[in-house]
């Protein structure tokens, strides 16, 4: 009888270990650059993390670290995920100029429409063209923000008002575009914009409405210039990426949770959050009585005519790198049109 009880106890212990293995719990550290109340942390990363936790039955916990709380600078975030310093990051792809050339097609002037439509287009485009560039991480989503505007201390009512303007551009391509438009581009990560405007390092900045809120840009400058038509001046590109080893060591059912919360619909979630944030940002500037300028069709066309030669130059540059630059531009435009029409 005692032997039977011992065998039963051993079996129960064995089953307990098996159940424990099946119910493996994982904590993932998510690191990003903005304060927690900013659009993406509050309205995309938090809902995403909550859904992952719910879909996993509480077995995946995502710990969020905002404003570079785990150290480093925004341009280092991608490598933090690649190298396993953290498990998941959200970052601006263009903070490391030239490293991800295929993604730059979506930064080209007057390419984008809305954050959601362009994010879907960008994610599908990247599934075709960007896989090699991101082979060192598990990509959760590629996405963009809404239409980029010019936020300036003095009014920008025409192309001539851009001449010599010290203006922040977030990426290599956006800086090239600003130079074409006659401005003096100054590259810097977005968290530095407020201080640079305050100290006179910048006369203006190019960011979408949603980013103006955490940076308090409507309090620092009183002029905001947008454009006629459906296409915004520019957009920046982003990636939500996970360390490959952290993903690979998950049990299959938890890998499925991550997979189910990755892809084009996740890109749409982030793009939608950007669009909603744009409404909030524009509303704050209006409430403050700021000067909100929409250039008419003729003036907008002047900006297009001046900036769009950059598109052909970029395509030629990509061809020189062995990439199908012209086809990439055509596909990007077609995908933006496809998702904008939906």
Please give a structural write-up.
The chain is α/β, with parallel strands linked by helices. It has two domains: 26-146 and 236-277, Bacterial extracellular solute-binding protein, family 7 (D-Maltodextrin-Binding Protein, domain 2, 3-Layer(aba) Sandwich); 149-234 and 289-340, D-Maltodextrin-Binding Protein, domain 2. It is built from 14 helices and eleven strands. The chain has helices at 2-22, 39-55, 77-83, 115-129, 172-180, 193-198, 209-215, 217-220, 244-248, 252-260, 264-287, 297-307, 309-320, 325-340, and strands at residues 26-31, 60-65, 88-92, 137-144, 149-152, 166-169, 184-187, 204-207, 223-227, 237-243, 291-295. It has a six-stranded mixed sheet. Helix 2 (39-55) runs antiparallel to helix 11.
């Amino acid at each position: 009888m005692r032997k039977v009880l011992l065998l039963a106890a051993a079996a129960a212990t064995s089953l307990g270990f098996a159940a424990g293995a099946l119910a493996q719990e994982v904590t993932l550290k998510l690191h990003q650059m903005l304060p927690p109340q900013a659009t993406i942390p509050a309205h995309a990363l938090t809902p995403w993390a909550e859904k992952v936790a719910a879909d996993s039955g509480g077995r995946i916990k995502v710990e969020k670290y905002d404003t570079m709380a785990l150290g480093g600078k925004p341009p280092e975030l991608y490598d933090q995920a690649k190298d396993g310093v953290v498990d998941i990051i959200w970052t601006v792809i263009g903070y490391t100029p030239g490293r991800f050339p295929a993604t730059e097609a979506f930064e080209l002037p007057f390419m984008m429409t809305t954050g959601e439509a362009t994010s879907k287009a960008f994610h599908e485009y990247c599934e075709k063209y960007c896989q090699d560039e991101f082979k060192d991480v598990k990509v959760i989503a590629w996405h963009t923000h809404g239409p980029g505007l010019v936020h300036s201390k003095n009014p920008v009512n025409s192309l001539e008002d851009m001449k010599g303007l010290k203006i922040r551009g977030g990426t290599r391509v956006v800086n090239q575009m600003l130079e074409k438009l006659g401005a003096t581009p100054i590259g810097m990560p977005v968290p530095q914009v407020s201080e640079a405007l305050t100290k006179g390092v910048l006369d203006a900045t190019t960011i979408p409405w949603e980013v103006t809120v955490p940076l308090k840009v409507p309090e620092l400058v009183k002029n905001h210039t947008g454009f006629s038509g459906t296409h915004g001046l520019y957009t920046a590109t982003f990636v939500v990426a996970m360390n490959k080893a952290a993903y690979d060591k998950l049990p299959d059912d938890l890998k499925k949770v991550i997979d189910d919360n990755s892809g084009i619909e996740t890109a749409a979630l982030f793009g939608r959050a950007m669009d909603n944030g744009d409404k909030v940002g524009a509303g704050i500037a209006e409430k403050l009585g700021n000067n909100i300028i929409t250039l008419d069709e003729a003036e907008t066309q002047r900006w297009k005519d001046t900036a769009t030669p950059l598109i052909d130059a970029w395509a030629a540059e990509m061809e020189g790198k062995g990439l199908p630059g012209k086809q990439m531009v055509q596909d990007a435009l077609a995908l933006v049109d496809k998702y904008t029409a939906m």
